[in-house]
Amino acid sequence: xxxxxxxxxxxxxxxxxxxxxxxxxxxxxxxxxxxxxxxxxxxxxxxxxxxxxxxxxxxxxxxxxxxxxxxxxxxxxxxxxxxxxxxxxxxxxxxxxxxxxxxxxxxxxxxxxxxxxxxxxxxxxxxxxxxxxxxxxxxxxxxxxxxxxxxxxxxxxxxxxxxxxxxxxxxxxxxxxxxxxxxxxxxxxxxxxxxxxxxxxxxxxxxxxxxxxxxxxxxxxxxxxxxxxxxxxxxxxxxxxxxxxxxxxxxxxxxxxxxxxxxxxxxxxxxxxxxxxxxxxxxxxxxxxxxxxxxxxxxxxxxxxxxxxxxxxxxxxxxxxxxxxxxxxxxxxxxxxxxxxxxxxxxxxxxxxxxxxxxxxxxxxxxxxxxxxxxxxxxxxxxxxxxxxxxxxxxxxxxxxxxxxxxxxxxxxxxxxxxxxxxxxxxxxxxxxxxxxxxxxxxxxxxxxxxxxxxxxxxxxxxxxxxxxxxxxxxxxxxxxxxxxxxxxxxxxxxxxxxxxxxxxxxxxxxxxxxxxxx
Length: 519
What we know:
The protein has 519 residues and is α+β, with helices and mostly antiparallel strands. It has helices at residues 29-40, 83-92, 106-114, 128-136, 144-150, 152-157, 160-164, 191-196, 205-217, 241-246, 269-283, 296-304, 321-328, 368-380, 382-387, 405-410, 415-418, 426-435, 441-448, 463-474, 477-484, 491-518; strands at residues 23-25, 60-65, 94-99, 122-125, 167-168, 171-172, 175-178, 185-190, 255-258, 261-264, 310-314, 334-336, 349-350, 355-360, 394-397, 400-403, 452-453. The protein has a five-stranded mixed β-sheet with strand order 3-2-4-14-7, sandwiched between helices. Strands 11-8-12 form a three-stranded antiparallel β-sheet. A two-stranded antiparallel sheet has the order 5-6. Mean pLDDT is 89; it is low at 1-54.
């Protein structure tokens, strides 16, 4: 039954529910957000409580700003009126007013809010540089005493080394939310296409090149038309990580040690070699000509429609576009591949930082204690918010979790709240993923983990990062131009020169000062 605004004033609340994929867009943003929220967490326990009226004239109101993660709500519900927020409010005695700026301009909206003079009681950010910038301006409240008094489950579930990363001057300034996955991408290919063309699953980069060429030129789907794509990326070189790994480098703000010093992955000579390889594929019409324009939904549609037979998948794509393709074409068979091994024997993919988000409390907030109580409740009851209400969304059967997929996907929006304080639980994680069907989700993650190329820098953003990172990031647009032949390969050398001159050298100096202290 739909819930209306009267619920906030104590009228009986109705029923409804739902996770991101990390699959969420079931028009393909859902497959993404549904399965990402798979990982960020989306399920629940205990159904009846959330139906009880929460009208409490003594309830304290707190205002929070969080992302909606691209989620949608069942009819009649929104971010302020739904069963999962009701469940939280009824169990904490709080009246929570939620503001969810559009995901497309989320970071910009946070800046507007911070300069407005009308601050909420809590904001959630995903950007460490943003967090670092405002901490140094004295914008946020130190939280140590509040955590000691109101956050026992936060202290228990968040590792000590993570707390150290949100400290300034020895004080904690954020409640971190953690990543349950350490890496995202792995290679998948259509085995039926390999078999039709008499090819073995590729391992070396040279073998990958031959499969990519054959998938583009040798009619792998047997329809007599040259309408297939050898390799596909998304804009900004999304889904390219395994190929950079074959050259021993990564983008994605990854730092590597070279001769005892940390250097930025995007500026390495190995990155130039990878761009040369991609430019060769593009020149030969083996790389999707539309990749600079591809968003996730374009990628998904091309996979579902049978144009793609090899790509760098996310761990949850087996429940998304790959599953959709196999449903559309019963003859389609997909298999995971070894990561491409480059000339120097290297392979791997970028890793994800253990911190995925930061909950901060403005220094002027009069309800900091209530915010900590809210976050502590989420940490304590993460199982309900990850899985959904027990015996409704999911239940135990023969020692395993069984999930109602329709309700599970309908209630993905619960991840908006759960992801504020995501805390790892390896056993629950596997049980949850296995309950979602035979999509090899947990196995995919197990394939990724040993192949991660972690960043050697994992400290708080340096002062120079706060000044230059955004500008330096836009300079990587030249990579796409090099691949398309709009700029010569040597434009990479000019990029490196400009990167260093426009702040990169200053960042590198600070990063290596941090690195020396770790040693």
